[in-house]
Write a structure and sequence with these properties.
Distance between the termini: 37 Å
Largest sheet: 6 strands, antiparallel, barrel
Radius of gyration: 16 Å
Structural class: mainly beta
Organism: Nonomuraea soli
CATH architecture: Beta Barrel
Protein name: tRNA-Thr(GGU) m(6)t(6)A37 methyltransferase TsaA
Number of strands: 6
Order of helices and strands: EEEEEEH
InterPro entries: TrmO-like_N (IPR023370), YaeB-like (IPR040372), YaeB-like_sf (IPR036413), YaeB_N_sf (IPR036414)
GO molecular function: methyltransferase activity
GO biological process, one term: methylation
Strand content: 25-35%
Number of helices: 1
CATH topology: Elongation Factor Tu (Ef-tu), domain 3
Helix content: under 10%
Strand order of the largest sheet: 1-2-5-4-3-6
Shape: globular
Amino acid sequence: MISITLDPVGTVVGGRTEAFDDDWNTEQAVIRIDGSRFGPDAVAGLDAFSHLEVLFQFHQVDPSTIHVAARRPRGNPEWPEVGIFAQRGKNRPNRLGVSRCRLIAVDGLDLHVRGLDAIDGSPVLDVKPYMAEFGPQGETVQPEWATELMRAYY
């Protein structure tokens, strides 16, 4: 197996201090890019975009709680058991999260965002501008339980 080492490009500052599932669109935070590795030119032009895609680590998830088998999302007995790769829960094998959020402002190396579902202190592994052309091509489908789960998420 190949080993991968990643160095965070920044850290989430502010917003929630603990993860709970809903109302993320009300949260504002800062993605503070690591000034010891990057200068302002690393974010040049980013302010022309409305949204970001952010890859981060669920750093507070205890590795002993990682799920690798099927389970009911949020433990809801009304929803089917589905594998970890058929859901977006934080107790994932590599504890990686991907989020799309609104970019409010760029202030030096501080990216002010709303709707980032990462908590204060989360290591940020990458930031990319969201471009519509990278969105899904064609119709998207998902099961009803996923639609129900997401109703109050943002």
